[in-house]
Amino acid sequence: MSTTWELRASPMLNKVPEVTLIFWTIKILSTTVGETGADYLAVHVGLGASLTMACMASLLIVALILQLRTRRYVPWIYWLTVVLVSIVGTQITDLMSDKLEISLYVSTAVFACALAATFAIWYRLEHTLSIRSIVTTRRELFYWAAILFTFALGTAAGDLATEALGLGFQFGVLTFAVLIALIAVFYWLGVNPVLTFWLAYILTRPFGASLGDLLSQSRQYGGVGLGTIHTSLVFLTVIVALVAWVTFEGDRGEKADPAE
Fold first, then answer.
1. How far apart are CA 25 and CA 7, in angstroms?
2. Higher confidence at residue 170 or residue 138?
3. CB under 8 Å to 249, separation ≥6 — which residues?
4. Residue 72 neighbours by CB under 8 Å, 6+ apart
5. Which residue among 80, 112, 139, 190 is least enclosed by CB atoms within 10 Å?
6. How far apart are CA 22 and CA 253, in angstroms?
7. Chain centre distance of CA 192
8. What is the pTM of this model?
9. Structural domain boundaries in the chain
């Protein structure tokens, strides 16, 4: 998005990374891995949606425990948790659509309400939604709950746009990219930074999912045809490289501002 969104130094706020260009890059890549990785495990490996959900949810619980137990920002733990949240969020939506046969219109509305309720309760109890103020375990739990619902909502909204509404993968990628760019413009014009941050965070999910589908799906369905395994491996490799860069090269000096 922008290299002007900044998480200013806070002695207690070092478990949430600075919102830099690298942050947004890894975020988008993780959403793509969530889309293609879930499809690969459920379909190509043959685990099925239910078993994939159970396995990934178990791994997510372990990652969350590690994340909550750390006293500082540890890049590999944080981003592992994000990737697993992305996969679980995708699986929740897919289970509702495929197993329970719930309309994408309904699931999109349900997750939108769940996210709104999370924000409302979070704000009522903590009086802020800023990721710069997450200095307690309760606030961090609200943060991860919001992240999970943004992924589930983004998956449902992305599938709704590209499949139910017939936008297709290419137009879907373009549409969500334009929306993210508009939010960046609103931020630069002085619109509330907390609002613009969370809107951008939500929209990067359907953007990444549409990008993953575009790259992985066969040409007859409008994709590039790389396949889910190749797409997932390439994006995971880039994520690992960027996380290693942040960890060992001190990239935290490049700053950008998300929220007040």
1. 16
2. 138
3. none
4. 14, 15
5. 190
6. 11
7. 21
8. 0.82
9. 21-253
